[in-house]
Request: fold
Amino acid sequence: CREVADFLWKQAEEGEIRPAAVIDHFPDEEDQTEIASMFHTEIKLDKDEERKKAFADVFFRMKRDSLDQRTAALEPADLQGLVKLTEERKKLENLHREGLQQLFSES
Reply:
């Protein structure tokens, strides 16, 4: 789950979320099936804005959980790792404040 979240995060930073690329990134067929199920969970939302908000909520929760786990796993003396995670957390907070609108390409 953390690797999927990290891959999604990289795509978000590049400006486009591509679920098929995330699935294809994993060579194991069982992993692909599990990851595909994450993207194919049916959520009944009537409006495009509701879908975007739901995606953003899941995205931010996954990324925060990933950062929390990585922070908890840090060695106490790993200041470089702590700085890196702090920078990632700040990027996430800025993205959350600005919204995810820039990630959704106009089709």
